[in-house]
Design a protein that fits this description.
alpha+beta; Metallo-B-lactamas; Metallo-beta-lactamase, Chain A; 7-stranded mixed sheet; 6-stranded mixed sheet; 6 helices; elongated; 2 domains
Length: 292
């Protein structure tokens, strides 16, 4: 039997060609939430765009400079502002002279427990892209596709010449995306997934995990998984009556790495908020929930 797979064993800092227009560089930040690490994509040939520049780490910035190899950088694009995606944008902009373009900055106003620890508060784009806006270079066109849900400011980027979609954290190649309120929104996420299902992209390039072939099949599966989780929550409340989220997580996530329980609890909360909006469940004091 082969030894257990360890994401930390994958090589980082190397430029890996994936198609005539796409290559990637893996950042040295593997974790239970990032899998092998954040994949920064280099798009183009004579002049390039950088998608999700990743963490502000010297080794990764050095690797990106080597990957660019002196070519003009048209734009540095960010799918969203989690700290494993956007912090390298500004130092890379200073290095290359390229503008930071993409998602809007995100500042949370939350009177409850802090929920923005994973966000890059220093992100300041030179240009914010709206749905359908394009960035072009020699031989390539990237079009923004608004996909709120994982975060409210999340964008995917469609490479029109190859019918490929850079999906950030909206669709990953190793796991479903964490939806963490108050900014993460299950209703918006499912709407964005339906939008992707109706597109005709031939290939997905996620920020975490390998390229995804037959992406519509994966999207259908992920939507089905969310519906199954919703059903589990409803059945749990039917069986147990008024309940707290940690009890639901312990029941529904058996066998899952306990380090992921906190994130699982956030996704369960997102489902409950969605179900509340549809009149199926209701919150009770002390962070408990019941069937309506």
């Amino acid at each position: 039997m082969p030894p257990p797979f360890d994401p930390a064993d994958l090589p980082t800092g190397l430029l890996m060609p994936l198609s005539p227009l796409v290559a990637r560089v893996l950042a040295p930040n593997p974790s239970p939430f990032t899998y092998t690490g954040t994949q920064t994509y280099v798009v183009g040939g004579d002049a390039v765009a950088i998608i999700d520049p990743g963490p502000n780490e010297t080794a990764h910035l050095t690797a990106l400079a080597a990957a660019i190899a002196g070519r003009p950088v048209v734009a540095i694009l960010c799918t969203h502002t989690h700290r494993d995606h956007s912090p390298a944008a500004r130092p890379l902009s200073i290095l290359t002279g390229a503008p930071v373009i993409g998602c809007a900055p995100l500042t949370l106003d939350d009177d409850g427990p802090r929920a923005d620890a994973a966000f890059d508060a220093d992100y300041r784009p030179d240009r914010v892209l709206g749905d359908g806006d394009q960035v072009t270079g020699p031989g390539w066109t990237l079009e923004a596709v608004a996909t709120p849900g994982h975060t409210s400011n999340h964008l995917c980027f469609a490479l029109l010449e190859e019918k490929a979609l850079f999906t950030g954290d909206h669709v990953m190649g190793w796991s479903t995306s964490v939806i963490s309120p108050p900014d993460g929104d299950m209703t918006a996420y499912m709407g964005s997934m339906q939008r992707l299902l109706e597109r005709d992209d031939a290939l997905y390039y996620p920020a975490h995990g390998e390229p995804i072939e037959n992406p519509q099949r994966l999207v259908r599966g992920m939507m089905g998984h969310r519906k199954q989780r919703e059903g589990q929550i409803l059945r749990f409340l039917e069986r147990n009556g008024e309940s707290a989220i940690p009890d639901m997580v312990a029941d529904m996530y058996r066998g899952v790495d306990p380090r992921l329980y906190s994130a699982a609890g956030r996704s369960v909360l997102a489902h409950l908020i969605d179900l509340d909006g549809r009149g199926l469940v209701a919150p009770v004091g002390d962070e408990r929930w019941r069937m309506c």
